[in-house]
Amino acid sequence: MSExxxxxxxxxxxxxxxxYVYFLLAAAASAIGFAMTQSKVEPLAWIHLPLGLSVMLWAxxxxxxxxxxxxxxxxxxxxxxxxxxxxxxxxxxxxRAAELLADFKLKLNKTVERxxxxxxxxxxxxxxxxxxGALLYILWHILRMGAIDA
Length: 150
Known about the structure:
It is elongated, with a radius of gyration of 23 Å. Helix 1 (2-38) packs antiparallel against helix 2 (49-88) and helix 2 runs antiparallel to helix 3. The mean pLDDT is 89. The chain contains three helices and no strands. The protein is an all-alpha fold.
């Protein structure tokens, strides 16, 4: 029962994580599209600098989200390989199987640690760039309102 609950919680966590990442991807793409519609008829001026920077940050956020998804998929693939390898080892002598499994686990752990670190990095970049892009967009909007009144 405990293993089933653990598996179910793991599935729910993974699904929640995926929904969050895809939401951020959609938000970044939508923000870029919206920002482009807000300035399409205006001539390029210094006031558009914060807008351009916000679009660039949203593009970085989108790219980081894609990289996160790639590393997440690779992480799942590595775990699938581990399970398949364990299944294949059933046909080996017990001592040899234990030795091969230990060797495989050592290599897998190194790979997985790197993947998890990259996932953390790209996840943080995705979130922060989306946020800072929004702040720059707000700054642009405030500057634009001030320029209209001037």
